[in-house]
Specification:
The complex is a heterodimer of chains A (239) and B (258). Chain A is α/β, with parallel strands linked by helices. Chain A has 10 helices and 10 strands. The longest helix of chain B is centred in the C-terminal third of the chain and has 32 residues.
Chain lengths: 239, 258
């Protein structure tokens, strides 16, 4: 399989001195879904922000063999679609149409292409007909779908999603998991929702305190209860 | 949580609602200019303007009570500024009163200025309410942009429209959290809580701003903002805009000649 993302010795420290990532190295191959799990504050979101160049630091991040730098940011952002955890941050325009059109317009598509992308993206998340709605009036589940559509409209080859099921009721959660399953591109999902990981991801990487703890097949990792307990991913065992 | 929006009645169906936002914006602007350039003694002209505005409001099928209620909301601010004018303006005295040791007199010119300020403010507010209640805000912003308003201003307004209710929700949640732990306490103590809440709100908004910006970057934002043009200036717009502006201009000219 083709290697599409490579991270080498990546460390990142926030301006307030908090060490968020220490010496992360991993590779991701074409196809399938990779889970990035870990407790709160493990550095999952920070790592995701490196994948399309929003945060950068001393380590090397390569996407499709190209090192992330100032010159290829635009190319990179059309390849790697990043969906943020809070849809209220992701949806910042007065209407759903404007929000989904934002990416394609920035890439420089023509008006007809932009309209087509919007229609296709809305169709892809099962939200056809929502163009003129205001994001503020949508339910959390609807907002999540629109947030994914804003990224799908840019035709990314890698979809990176931060906590897709946070704040969703079980019904909306499973319908969102079904939706993600149908999307054909390579996906990287950060979450601590193990039901989602089991249903969706073939490979799992556990991240804790900014370090990669294990990296392997999901079925093996989810079966290792002591490991999950040690990293805050399962209920503590009774003494 | 649900809020009543600025453009609450903007999805009614009327002739006015179908007009291009730019037409409506220009009409509102011309109307305000005509109103503020009218000398205060011409009450007939003001009556005529009120009649025009009433016609616009009727055409747009807005609930009259709602419009009046909203127009009154701003009056206290205007009154607060203007209420003292009759007492300080010099001129022919309309009446004088003794309040304790002071002698207070009200002058005719002063009253005239007060009336002038009030009627002009009220008519202008009515026209703005008419504009914002018949136009969806996103369309109004598009219109302003195409009329040449700087893109940065339009973006600031559109972010404000998007996030004001998110922030209001946040304030409501914080207030509920405070009230559920509020067991009385001194006035001073409560003031301090409010101060902390304002500080927290500021930091949260600031951090949200950073996350929103990251979300914009993630979708290829590079500091230049681009939009699609999708407003259509129809024939009805041209006829209505031109004829209404002409009527207003005619009124002001006739008014000047007299």
């Amino acid at each position: 399989m083709e290697e599409i993302v490579r991270v080498d010795n990546l460390s990142f420290c926030y301006p307030d001195g908090q060490q968020a990532l220490t010496d992360i190295s991993l590779t991701i191959h074409q196809g399938g879904t990779v889970a990035l799990v870990g407790p709160n504050g493990a550095g999952k979101s920070t790592l995701l922000l490196h994948l399309n160049g929003i945060l950068r630091s001393n380590g090397v991040v390569k996407v499709f063999g190209r090192t992330v730098d100032d010159k290829n940011l635009k190319w990179l952002r059309s390849k790697v679609g990043l969906v943020f955890q809070n849809p209220d941050d992701q949806l910042f325009s007065p209407t759903v149409f404007d929000d989904i059109a934002f990416g394609p317009i920035n890439i420089g598509h023509s008006e007809t292409e932009v309209r087509e992308s919007v229609t296709r993206a809305l169709d892809g998340v099962g939200m056809t007909g929502y163009e003129q709605r205001s994001p503020h009036h949508l339910s959390v589940g609807e907002k999540k779908r629109i947030a994914i559509a804003t990224v799908l409209a840019m035709n990314p080859e890698i979809l990176v999603i931060d906590e897709p099921t946070a704040n969703l009721d079980p019904g909306s959660k499973w319908s969102l998991i079904g939706l993600l399953e149908r999307l054909p591109m390579t996906k990287i999902v950060a979450s601590h929702d193990l039901e989602l990981v089991q249903a969706l991801c073939q490979r799992t990487i556990i991240l804790d305190q900014g370090k990669v703890i294990v990296d392997g097949a999901t079925e093996h990792i989810l079966a290792d209860i002591p490991l999950l307990v040690a990293h805050g991913l399962a209920p503590p065992e009774a003494d | 949580m649900k809020h009543s929006f600025l453009d609450r009645y903007s999805n009614l169906d009327s002739f006015i609602h179908k007009l291009d936002p730019r037409t409506k914006f220009i009409i509102a602007l011309v109307f305000i200019l005509a109103v503020i350039s009218t000398p205060p003694i011409r009450w007939q002209v003001f009556a005529l303007y009120l009649f025009f505005m009433a016609a616009l409001l009727l055409l747009s099928k807005l609930p009259i009570f709602y419009v009046l209620k909203r127009s009154l909301v701003v009056m206290p601010f205007v009154l607060m500024i203007a209420i003292f004018i009759p007492f300080i303006k010099e001129g022919e005295v309309a009446g004088s009163y003794n309040i304790g040791l002071w002698q207070v007199s009200v002058t005719y010119t002063g009253l005239q200025v007060l009336w002038n300020v009030l009627i002009k403010a009220w008519l202008s507010i009515l026209s703005l309410i008419w504009l914002t209640s018949t136009t969806k805000l996103p369309n109004l912003l598009k219109g302003l942009e195409q009329l040449g308003m700087p893109r940065v201003m339009v973006m600031i307004l559109s972010f404000m429209y998007r996030y004001i209710f998110v922030v209001v929700d946040e304030v409501m949640r914080m207030r509920q959290a405070r009230d559920s732990r509020d067991f009385g306490g001194s006035r001073l103590c409560q003031l301090r809580t409010i101060g902390n809440m304002i500080g927290t709100l500021f930091i949260r908004s600031y951090e949200r701003g950073e996350r929103v910006y990251a979300a914009m970057l993630a979708r290829g934002f590079d500091g230049h903002s681009r939009t699609l043009d999708r407003l259509n200036f129809s024939q009805a717009d041209a006829y209505f805009g031109i004829s209404f502006s002409l009527v207003l201009i005619l009124t002001s000219v006739v008014n000047l000649l007299y």
